[in-house]
Amino acid sequence: MNTVYYNADVPDDLRRSRLYNGQLFVYAARESTSALCAFACELAEEAFGRHDPRDAQHYLPVDEYVAILADLKPRFIHHPQSKRLVQNVLTDLGCDPEKTFFDVPRMRTATAANYLDTGIAYAFKPHRDTWYSPPMCQLNWWLPIYPIESENSMAFHVKYWHKPLRNSSHEFNYQQWVETGRREAANHVGKDTRRQSEALEPVELDPQLRVVTEPSGLLIFSAAQLHSTVPNTSGRTRLSIDFRTVHSDDLAARRGAPNLDSHCSGTTIGDYLRVSDLSHVPAEIAALYGAPADFAVA
Ligand SMILES: [Fe+2]
């Protein structure tokens, strides 16, 4: 059973336990989420100049488009203002700032009609984020920057909440990925040869669930949900923001979603920053996840 809770006014502990059971939470745009999206929008519009970021793909050669994203995305990711705005979203949504940790927010672009779906705008095939080395309590937070439609949203393949899929996560090591794959993202235009975790058997895409929110609307889901970028047939690029959270009590107790089929190695534990003071996950908790001794040096 999967339930979509809309604007649910519940304590974070209850929300997390429901998310670990495969439920989804959706919130209407609010001041804190709108501020985050407005900042992303500002950077994107500045980067694309006279073109609307949603339509620039129709006017720019791919190489030029990639060059813009190669500058824009890291600028948003590492901007101190981005972190501040995420901190505001999390406290606004009732997360305990002392026990909630987040990673830097990413800006994603899903172009229409396969204009660019590799490298820096990788179109994610059905996958669980838990195939990429996070703790099983990781939650994903996702917001569209502009209005979206079903045709440029993302899909949840909910029946796989209970059904394992054969996949290549056993070949994925997060620390190796950071060393090589991520840094090379902008070089992979046309063909993407980086090693991604992926399903090794056909995925039944239907039934699938797509959630269409207003811009700055918020979707929260467990990293164990099987989801994908839908083939974008809307004619416009989708721009979205996502970031992840973990809770220190859940990390310490090893609570989270059930692990059906994730066999990756390495850990993302060094990526999360405490909402209150941007400190890393305490070393004794990080050690439970096999963090290397220098894990905090990212
Ligand atoms: Fe994902």
Bound ligands, each once: fe (ii) ion
Taken from the alpha-carbon principal axes, the silhouette is globular
Structural class from helices and strands? alpha+beta
Number of helical elements: 7
Helix content: 25-40%
Element-level helix/strand string: EHEHHHEEEEHEEEEHEH
Largest sheet: 8 strands, mixed
Distance between the termini: 39 Å
Q: What's the count of strands?
A: 11
Rg: 18 Å
Give the uncertain stretches in residue-range form: none
Strand content: 15-25%
Mean pLDDT: 91
Describe this structure in words.
- The protein is an alpha+beta fold.
- The protein has helices at residues 12-20, 31-48, 62-78, 80-92, 174-179, 248-253, 283-288; strands at residues 4-6, 24-27, 100-102, 106-110, 139-144, 154-156, 209-210, 218-222, 227-229, 238-247, 273-274.
- 42% of the residues are buried.
- Bound molecules: fe (ii) ion.
- The site of fe (ii) ion has 4 residues, from loops.
Looking at this protein, list some descriptive labels:
298 residues, three-stranded antiparallel sheet, globular, binds fe (ii) ion
Chart the SSEs and their pairings.
Elements: E1 4-6, H1 12-20, E2 24-27, H2 31-48, H3 62-78, H4 80-92, E3 100-102, E4 106-110, E5 139-144, E6 154-156, H5 174-179, E7 209-210, E8 218-222, E9 227-229, E10 238-247, H6 248-253, E11 273-274, H7 283-288
Parallel strand pairs: 1-2
Antiparallel strand pairs: 2-8, 3-10, 3-11, 4-10, 5-8, 5-10, 6-7, 6-9
The structure holds fe (ii) ion.
